[in-house]
Every structure is written in structure tokens, then in C-alpha cells.
Amino acid sequence: MAENLMVLEEAQAIVLEHVHPTPVVEVPLHLAAGLPAAADLATDIDLSPFANSAMDGYAVRACDLADASADFPVELVVIGHEAAGHVFEGAVEEGCAVRIMTGAPMPAGADAVVKYEIVELMEGDGNEGSTVRFTASAQVGDNVREAGLEARAGEAVMHAGEVLAPAGCGLLASAGITAVPVHRAPVVGVLSIGTELVAPDTVPGRGQIRDANSSALLASVVAAGGEPRFYGIAGDSEDEISNMMLAAAEECDFVISSGGASAGDYDYVTRLVRREGRVLFDRVSMRPGKAITFGLIRNTPYLGLSGNPAAACVGFEMLARPALRKMRGYAVVPRPLQYARVAHNVRKTQARRFYDRAVLSRDEGGELVVVAAKSQNSALLGTLQNANCLLMVPDGDAGFSAGDMVPCVRIDLPEGTVL
Ligand SMILES: Nc1nc2c(c(=O)[nH]1)N[C@H]1C(S)=C(S)[C@@H](COP(=O)(O)OP(=O)(O)OC[C@H]3O[C@@H](n4cnc5c(N)ncnc54)[C@H](O)[C@@H]3O)O[C@H]1N2
Ligand code: MOO
Fold first, then answer.
1. Ligand 2 mean position to 264 CA, how many Å?
2. CA 90 to CA 72: how far, in whole Å?
3. Which atom of ligand 2 is nearest to the CA of 287?
4. pTM above 0.90, yes or no
5. Considering the domain boundaries, does residue 99 fall inside one?
6. Cβ-based neighbours of 93, under 8 Å, separated by 6 or more
7. Among 167, 183, 199, which residue terminates a domain?
8. Listed residue (88, 91, 92) closest to 61, CA to CA
9. Last residue of some domain: 306, 328, 350?
10. What domain count does the chain have?
């Protein structure tokens, strides 16, 4: 390519090569959902620890009921009960049954449970001394949950890299685990570069604009599992920028700036990263987001994104998000890709790969259709706010014609979602 742009996948591989999972910390179970476990986690006891009833009813010996039917009912004597906090210590012998509640341990000798609804009470209140009648046979194991059904003592119930669902947090609680080892949130320094920028609570003067990127990037850091730290706005002066860059590189696991990344008179980022560290790439074949510098400052990864707001956000999506997720311990998997019929022609004006902000939906016939925003101007954030996908137009000169099936990156769905 004339401009010497790096193919996106190559740039992504370089970034990923230079980031590593953060140190492990422990978080309480209820805060661990959505995070990948950093180690295999084993249960200290059988789950469940004892065979128990799956129904409220009577624990019986299936062989006692082998011939039971409506015509030849079988009567058993209730010799005890099992309820929350009350365990029957005896054994169920021939002709006997024990009244039992869901979850209570199976008494010795019993091998099946018959639910209340199909048992007739002949005498008494159903507890000790009562007589109950059965009109159907029972099979060994009916309504019994075996000990260790979920896992045996010492067995891993969660594996390193597995993302915890809320149910998994409950499973770990059953296994006696109260805190989950996870890779801590990477601390991500965010800085905005540009003399024209003012804080969002300020009414901009002539030639000034509000700093929108830092809010978008701080939010993106949180969404990617990182802990953002805002360093402020640096004017277009080498000293101001390098002081902020160095402070952030010193204190953070990853640094992201926006602005000053291109070829203008005040675009210092690439030069400063080179001066203070090492530049690994500085142009990516992507629109929006071509002007992207990546390098290391004192061994801290530094990503200098374009100042144009949509370019900064798409640059984050493609390069920072995978890196932060890797640091958090997630498997490196892409956002889901889905093909849809494009409703209009897609023209290419440059050879770099396009990621057009677009909306994917189903038409009345149920077919997936994608419509790109009318303006793909990199200054616009609203089109990204409203997009649920990025329509990918490959590197090269060819666009798409209306009716083509086109690839769409689902930015509204988590990585690895099966569609
Ligand atoms: N001669 C060339 N000019 C430009 C090229 C090029 O290759 N050659 N690339 C263009 C592309 S593509 C992009 S994208 C931009 C990238 O520019 P910079 O990263 O240097 O960004 P700035 O010039 O600082 O700002 C661009 C634009 O974005 C606004 N901005 C910057 N920071 C913020 C912020 N925090 N919040 C809101 N808006 C922000 C800034 O005011 C400018 O309007 O360069 C093209 N030019
Ligand atoms: O690539 Mo710029 O990043 O087009 O807006």
C-alpha cells in the first residue's frame, strides 16, 4: 500500500504479543460473575455430600413395592421422618417407609422415593406410626439424587479461563470457596491531546471543542474489564504531552491517548513514543482509525489513537479491547461475525479496510439486513452510539453492491457469542 499501512490483524497480533495477564487477586463470589477464573478450583466435599430426596414423599425399598398396583395395593408403616434439621438415624426395613422432604438425606435401606401425591394415607398423620398405601411399583433410584452427582471431593468444578456465570458463583459456594482468584483489572491511563480541547463542563470558546474522547474511552475501558484513570488534557506541546505520557506509563498497566497521532504540525505522539521508548507501528489499514501509534514506554504498552472521535472508538474496539481482555484473563476470541444482506451499494474511496457504522435488523421476511449510516465521517459519535455492528469492507478497492451478503462485526455482543 502506498502509505505503508499495516494490515489490522498484524497490528492486533503485535499488541497482543506485548500484553500479559495481570497479577492474580481474589474477589468475593458475588463480584466474580462475568470474570474468568485464574486457576482451577476444586470442591473439598462431594457435591452433594449425601444421597437425598428430589421430592417430598416417602423413602421406601423399591423391592417392597415390586407388585403394587391399583388392584393389589401395598401398605407400609411409617417409622420416622426426615426434615430440615432432622435426620432419621435408623434403617428402613421390609414393610417400612420414612416420611421425607426434598433435599433430606436418604435413610439407610431406602432406595426410592414416592411423592406424596400418589400415596394414600390410611391411618395417622403421615408421621411415625402411620400406615400409607401404594398403588404403583417404584424403581430403584426413583426421585433420589445420588451423592456426588455434581462433583466428587477433590474434583475441579471450575477451570482456569472459564468465565463465571452467576450459577458458577453458587457452585463455588457449595464447594466451600468464598473468594475467586482472578486477574485484577488492568489500570489503564487515558489522556486527551489537543490545545483546542476543554473539559465537558466548560462552554467552548472560539476554536475550542469539548473533550468527548476521554469519556468514550474511559467508558470503553470499563466495558472491557479495565480500571480507567484519567490523566487530563495535554495541550499540543511536546513537554506537556511527554510529561503526561511518562506519568501514565509509570503508574499504569496500559496507556491510551487520543489526538496528535497524525501528520499535522502538532502531531507529536509517534515522535514522543519513539523518543521515550519504542514504536511498533504507526499506521493501520483501517477507516476510521488509520492514524494509530502503538509502542512501549518504559515497557508499558502505549496506544495513541486518532483524535477524530469515531476513529478513537473504533481504534479502541479493534486494538485496545482485545488487549485489555487478554490482561484480564479472557481467552482471545473475536466479536461474533454475522453475514447480512446489504440494503445499498457500499462505495470504497480508499484502499484501507472500512468498518462502516451500521445497523443490522431482520426484515418482515425474517432475513438479516444491514444498513450503514449515511455519513461515515470520523468526527461523528452518534452514528456509533446507534450502530450495533461495523460493516466490514475488505482491504482493496472493491466495495459491495446492494443485495450482497456482507460481513458485520457485532459490537453489541460479547466475544465468543454463538449466533
Ligand atoms: N495530512 C494528513 N492529514 C490527516 C491524515 C493524514 O493521513 N494526512 N489523517 C486523517 C485522519 S484519517 C485522522 S483520523 C486524523 C487523525 O488526527 P489526529 O490523531 O492527529 O487527531 P487531531 O488532529 O488531534 O484531531 C482530529 C480531530 O479530532 C478532534 N478531537 C481530538 N481530540 C478530541 C477529543 N478528545 N474529543 C473530541 N474531539 C477531539 C480534533 O478537534 C479534530 O477535529 O487526521 C486526519 N488528517
Ligand atoms: O482514519 Mo481517520 O481515523 O479516517 O478518521
1. 14
2. 28
3. 1
4. yes
5. yes
6. 109
7. 183
8. 92
9. 328
10. 4
Encode the chain (419 residues) as per-residue pLDDT tens digits: 457 899 999 999 999 999 999 999 999 999 999 999 999 999 999 999 999 999 999 999 999 999 999 999 999 999 999 987 789 999 999 999 999 999 999 999 999 999 999 999 999 999 999 999 999 999 999 999 999 999 999 999 999 999 999 999 999 999 999 999 999 999 999 999 999 999 999 999 999 999 999 999 999 999 999 999 999 999 999 999 999 999 999 999 999 999 988 877 778 999 999 999 999 999 999 999 999 999 999 999 999 999 999 999 999 999 999 999 999 999 999 999 999 999 999 999 899 999 999 999 999 999 999 999 999 999 999 999 999 999 999 999 999 999 999 999 999 999 999 99
Same domain flag for 256 and 114: no
**Do both 352 and 278 map to the same domain?**
no
Q: How many helices (H) and strands (E) does the chain have?
A: 8, 26
List pocket residues of ligand 1, CB cut-off 6 Å: 192, 194, 196-197, 209, 211-214, 258-264, 267, 290-291, 306-309, 311, 378
Residue-number span of the structural domain to which 324 is assigned: 8-23+184-328
Q: How far is the CA of 290 from the centre of ligand 2 (A)?
A: 5
Same domain, 262 and 298: yes
- In 153-183, which positions are buried (b, 16+ CB within 10 angstroms) versus exposed (e)? eeeebbeeebbbeeebbebbeebebeebbbb
Distance from the alpha carbon of residue 89 to the mean position of ligand 1, in angstroms: 78
User: What does the block give as the cell for 175?
Assistant: 464447594
Identity of the residue numbered 330:
Y
C-alpha gyration radius of the chain: 32
User: Which ligand is closest in space to the CA of residue 354?
Assistant: 2
Domain check: are 218 and 171 in the same one?
A: no
- CATH number (domain holding residue 161): 3.90.105.10
CA of 198 to the centre of ligand 2 (A): 22
Rounded to the nearest whole angstrom, what is the distance from the C-alpha of residue 286 to the centroid of ligand 2?
8
CA atoms within 13 A on the CB side of 380: 13
State which ligand 2 atom lies nearest to the alpha carbon of 286: 1
CATH code for the domain of 104: 2.170.190.11
State which ligand 1 atom lies nearest to the alpha carbon of 378: 14
The number of the ligand 1 atom at minimal distance from the alpha carbon of 305 is 19
